[in-house]
Design goal:
With 467 residues, this protein is of the alpha/beta class. Helices cover 28% and strands 27% of the residues. The strands form four sheets. Strands 2, 13, 14, 15, 17, 18, 19 and 22 form an eight-stranded antiparallel beta sheet that branches.
Length: 467
């Protein structure tokens, strides 16, 4: 595995200098003015969902390193399932008093050893404040299984709070964000809760965490499957409680179809107009992947995923987490034998992970745009063409990234204003045949450049500033 991992990394970063041959004439010309004074949202980062059940020591580490070092993942949504082997029997009759001998034994079982070891690995590699814990799947039967039964809110909160207390105080692990349930508007993905009940549980969890000395932790939610219900029902309930809002780092929503509900406008016209939103699960939808069917993970699938990524960023998302990092097994999808959503494929025979096209396609965006960058200028959103630009004032780095889904090359007519002087643009692209290919550089003259973008590709232009 070590040799193959090194080969993958070396191949990924080998950037050919060969120029891309294209016809000089008949290329559509698309104007793209970029004004550094136009600032939209500030990007928190591009991240990934990862399943702790797959942790098996050294076996998973090469996969995590690919996500960390190659894709430059900065936000990690770490999944812990609630379905089985988690307080299957009540610790005691008082939800406000922990039975620590019970929990001490529970949290040293194999299920939770995987969680602690994976969190420790991420902490060791610098992932702390952007390590987000999400609980997924049914809850113990005696609490309600598919929902939280009346009178059981405190028991559910106690179970979650015991986990975080043990992680912080007994395992000395660091985390900064909590996403307490998953898709509460949907069956099986988490306890099904109506919007009011979700807000009640969130408030009780925030209060309990504060009472345990963990008031510095922030929250992401409501993470509904349906973005429209999130905007119209779940988020308004959360906004009714000022204490909840004081602890909400970001509103979380899911999307497998791009920007199909206007959450950015809804937030800007709400009582909390400066709220931001993360898409804590995003991809292009494919039937069967949850059910053990290995799909066609080709360039077209990856390109649809990246087009959604750009669409959601264009419309104000400040954080994006792809579903999911690697193929894995989920208890709450049983009897499905396996989930094949991973941007890293799992080889059951050799117990190794390898990149699918998604990894290279998403890296055309995630490996270049720094967290803290501002979306700047005006995005291009045309038939089969989408282009965005991001500027980071700290490092003075400008990145222009996009997708050309046309069968012919095109020319971007870039005009720069209110930005540091730029000498040239480096062009990288991924298409059906090539991964992360470097083309010839484009000279910038008098704040203008005219890069030729290859047909049917995902591309990135990285600016080199004049020193």
């Amino acid at each position: 595995m070590k040799k193959s991992s090194l080969y993958i990394l070396a191949s990924f970063f080998f950037l050919s200098q060969a120029s891309f041959c294209q016809p000089v004439q008949n290329k559509p010309v698309i104007p793209m003015p970029i004004d550094g004074l136009i600032k939209k949202q500030q990007l928190d980062g591009i991240g990934v969902n990862v399943n702790t059940r797959s942790w098996n020591g050294k076996e998973l580490e090469p996969a995590l390193l690919l996500l960390l070092d190659t894709m430059k993942v900065t936000i990690w949504r770490v999944i812990v399932e609630t379905v089985e082997k988690w307080e299957d029997v009540n610790d005691n009759k008082d939800p406000l008093t922990f039975n620590w001998p019970y929990y001490d034994s529970l949290y040293e079982t194999p299920k939770f050893q995987k969680v602690w070891e994976m969190m420790a690995w991420l902490n060791h590699h610098g992932i702390t404040k952007n390590l987000m814990i999400n609980f997924m799947g049914y809850i113990p039967k005696w609490m309600g299984e598919e929902t939280i039964n009346p009178g059981m809110d405190e028991e559910y909160v106690e179970m979650l709070a015991s986990f975080f207390y043990y992680a912080k105080n007994k395992k000395r692990l660091q985390f900064g964000l909590i996403s307490p349930t998953n898709e509460s508007d949907w069956r099986k993905e988490g306890p099904k809760l109506d919007p009011r009940h979700y807000a009640i549980v969130m408030r009780k969890l925030i209060d309990r965490m504060a009472s345990l000395g963990m008031g510095d932790v922030q929250y992401v939610g409501p993470d509904p499957a349906d973005m429209k219900r999130g905007i119209k029902e779940y988020i308004p309930e959360l906004m009714k409680d000022p204490l909840i809002m004081a602890k909400m780092a970001h509103f979380g929503v899911h999307s497998y179809g791009g920007y199909y509900a206007d959450i950015d406008s809804a937030l800007k016209h709400s009582a909390y107009p400066h709220s931001g939103f993360w898409v804590t699960e995003w991809n292009e939808w494919r039937d069967g992947l949850d059910d053990g069917v290995v799909g066609v993970n080709d360039y077209n699938f990856a390109a649809e995923c990246v087009n959604h990524l750009l669409d959601l960023l264009q419309h104000g998302a400040t954080g994006m987490m792809v579903w999911e990092g690697y193929d894995s097994y989920y208890e709450h999808h049983a009897p499905s034998p396996f989930s094949y959503w991973g941007i890293l494929a799992y080889d059951h025979q050799h117990k190794t992970y390898s990149p699918r096209k998604h990894l290279y396609a998403i890296s055309q965006v995630s490996a270049f745009i720094k967290s803290g960058s501002w979306q700047t200028g005006n995005a291009i959103s045309l038939d089969s063409v989408r282009v965005l630009s991001f500027y980071d004032s700290t490092s003075q780095s400008l990145v222009i990234t996009g997708i050309n889904r046309r069968k012919t090359p095109l020319t971007l007519e870039i005009a720069l204003a209110n930005l540091p002087a730029i000498h040239h643009l480096e062009l990288y692209y991924t298409n059906e045949q090539l991964n992360f290919q470097r083309n010839t550089d484009i000279i910038v003259s008098s704040h203008h450049a005219s890069p030729a973008i290859p047909a049917n590709c995902i591309f990135t232009l990285k600016a080199k500033m004049v020193k």
